[in-house]
Amino acid sequence: MIDWRGYRIEIAYCRSWSPSFEDIYGYAMSHIEVRTIEPERAPLPITETGYRSHFIHEPVVAEHGGAEAVVRLMLEDAAKSREWRELEESSKQFSLF
Questions:
Q1: How far apart are the C-alpha atoms of 73 and 20, rounded to whole Å?
Q2: Are 56 and 69 in contact (CB under 8 A)?
Q3: CA distance 92 to 11
Q4: What is the predicted pLDDT for the residue at 69?
Q5: Which pLDDT score is estimated for 92?
Q6: Where along the chain do its domains lie?
């Protein structure tokens, strides 16, 4: 579980999602699941639904320091988008409508 900009996010990590892939290629294919817990199902810059399933080569996960570090990097990178900045800004403003 991590806290990112006020969002509580659950991260599930499976180091080797497919033993066959690992047998063939010599390294694991990892699977990372990201869920917004609080606020529940809130959109994130990497998902409009509050859930993201992501496959990634295990050596990349290790190189970046683990699944949590990879998710934080994904979030920070995606948060640079104009769409996310606008959504974040509009959620801070009070609306009567």
A1: 28
A2: no
A3: 26
A4: 98
A5: 67
A6: 2-92
Q: Which residues contact 81 (CB under 8 A, 6 or more apart)?
A: 45
Q: How far apart are CA 73 and CA 10, in angstroms?
A: 15
Distances (CA, A) of 3 to 6, 19, 37, 68, 71: 6, 32, 10, 11, 11
The pLDDT profile of the chain, 97 residues, written as one tens digit per residue, is 999 999 999 999 999 999 999 999 999 999 999 999 999 999 999 999 999 999 999 999 999 999 999 999 999 999 999 999 888 887 766 555 5
Helix (H) or strand (E) holding 83: helix 82-92
Residue 12 and residue 33: Cα distance in Å, rounded? 5
Write out the H or E segment, with its range, that includes residue 4.
Answer: strand 2-4
Specify which residues 13 forms β-bridges with: 32
Structure tokens at 76: 């920070």
